[in-house]
Fold these 3 entries.
Entry 1:
Amino acid sequence: MQLPLQGLRVLVTRPAHQAGRFSELLTAAGALPQLFPVMAIETVRTAPDSLLQIKQAAYNWVIFISANAVESGLKLLSDYPCLEKIKIGAIGKQTAAALGKYGFTQVIAPEAGFTSEDFLALTALQELHNQHILIVRGDAGREVLADTLRQRGAKVVYAKVYQRYSIGSGAKLKQVHAEQPLDIICITSTEILQNLLQLLGTETWIYQLPLVVGSERIAAYAQQLGFNNRIIVATSPADDAMLAALIEWRQDNEE
């Protein structure tokens, strides 16, 4: 019996430390994953003062933006019991699951969705007068979460616990595609897509390939950059959701 993604050459662009399970899922479905990370993530060397103030019970809330924020933040903090009396928020189930690995089970996160808007829709986030909130994140990101929390009365500060930087070789990727053409590209963030195009410079062949992306926001960004056809939108950037989108796309194209 033929597997659902039999022989499909899939370019996996997410950071190497996050690509392992997705690669295994692709292989099990018959695909030929081509691992080509275009972004690396590194924990900052020194814990920011805003993060260390958790130990002085300076906050009512600590909100983790991503699984990377959990891993880097808790690595820098090292002392987890200080979080037990603080409300902990997570932007999406993946982030909540990352916290669960460290024993945090009372995490406030949306049942569905994975964006700041989904998190902000929660009842617990509506009235925040004089609440002190720490947002744990990387070196950049959208401001909608902090801005909205402030509008609702909160005092918000950031703890930037990791940094992202572009890696990879455009010449190497061109060679990979020339030797055995890629069939589709997986994109899980706007930064990853931006880095991919920067690596390729003036190369235009990349725009001819279909993309499977992790959100409508990424799809809209891809369209702005010139990917006007064949953008498949998964229900989330999670491994299972991206795989399901690939399988559905493959089935639709075989009919």
Entry 2:
Amino acid sequence: MNNIDMQFGQEVWKQLETIHQFGYSYSAIFSDFVDLGLLAVLSLTSNLPYPDVMERLQENRLTGKYEDEYVKIMKRYRENENREMGKRPADYFAAAFGLLPKGTAKVGQDILGDIYMEYISHGEMGQFFTPAPICDLMTQITGVKDRETVADPCCGSGRLLISAGKLNPSAHCVGVDISPMCAKMAAINMWL
């Protein structure tokens, strides 16, 4: 990570790391963070047809299968039941997810993948992602035309797709990865 990416990645990680004090493993926390983030995005998307979606969101009244899955994950963190607001794992997850879009927008790159490589995979099982400048160069060399499909069969956290989207926002990005964790990170990055 470069210094700017590291700063935002560390802010997000600091929130997640706080959950570790309750006795949960870093890999479980990160996996749940990615799942919770994806479920939150999917829940919001599935609630868009409701005319009062913004009111529902503000009042924490979203409904549906994604919301149910979200709640199941949060129930695993028993401290959510007996700790005061602001000091629960739910609060740290929310703070981390709140920082992620801000940092990603500021640097325009994959902070989530950097956190994964730096703190979770440590490069295990080949989990090193192509550096963003190389992805940017590859998309500039190949070019991305309007409404063209950009496919990445080993998308990792979606860095090549991010570069293609920056170069041409009307591109149709398709990413596939053998790792469910990577596919989920790529989906969140595409939303960001």
Entry 3:
Amino acid sequence: FMSTAEARPAEMQDEPSPEPAARPSAVDPRQKYVVQYLSRRYRVADQAARMLVANAFEIGQDKKLDPLLILSVVAIESGLNPFAESPVGAQGLMQVMTRVHAERFVEHGGDLAALDPIANMKVGSAILHELISRGGSLERGLQLYVGAGNAPDDGGYGAKVLGERARLQMAATGKVDAAIAAARAA
């Protein structure tokens, strides 16, 4: 039996072994606190929260979208449950209408990719970014995202998302307990 390091060529032995399903590491110090908040608030494994947060920061940078906004939509839409499905067929972390946006999932492997947390966040974030741009404001973009584009208001959806983003911003500064307390009071 050989260790992983022994099994690799000598020139690669100084490099760390790749982790299974390696994801971006928490480079931004705010991520650690956001992970703590999400893990405690939504009762998800620390590793799962870390993966979601790291990917939200990466996707946010790629899409020019606030990663805490992405995470707040994930939290409000699915409670961080990647297998969530609404009565109207919205699926995954960001509750994307898979049948409406099927073409967006093709590059990620097809319709079943809607239940892949990272693919769902990438597609949902792209949709959210487009709707904010089309709507002309964050509030209007959220109204369009929740499907209330023709309604006089969004039934409080935007306020919920922005409230969660404010708590995530608080947590990101290291005030995790205060953010948890604010969530309980909301």
